[in-house]
């Protein structure tokens, strides 16, 4: 059964909306900084830190892309950007809130789940979002 985690861009987040290209840019930045860490350690850490290839979904009606594993320890994960309607508690009006959904499809490995948790925390921290983990727990990365 597929499982998913959500990163919600709440009103106190650094930004209220994100595009697919910006999200892909965060993954490229992640690869870049882990490569620099590897250079400092004298080890090819970027390959171990990001064992995926980024692929676009063709003919998708939703904004999404997927990460395909490059070895047998990692299968895949899907990233999707969506919007939900929420009720603003202060003004009691409805408004749209953007979220990033990370989906582990059937066949995902334990390695995928570990990397997905790592990526979710990285993205939520960079965007100062609200992270809803696979196990239902919530982590807050914005100032409260």
From TrEMBL:
Pfam families linked: DUF1885 (PF08968)
Matching InterPro entries: DUF1885, Rbstp2229-like_sf
Superkingdom of origin organism: Bacteria
Full protein name: DUF1885 family protein
UniProt lineage: Bacteria, Bacillati, Bacillota, Bacilli, Bacillales
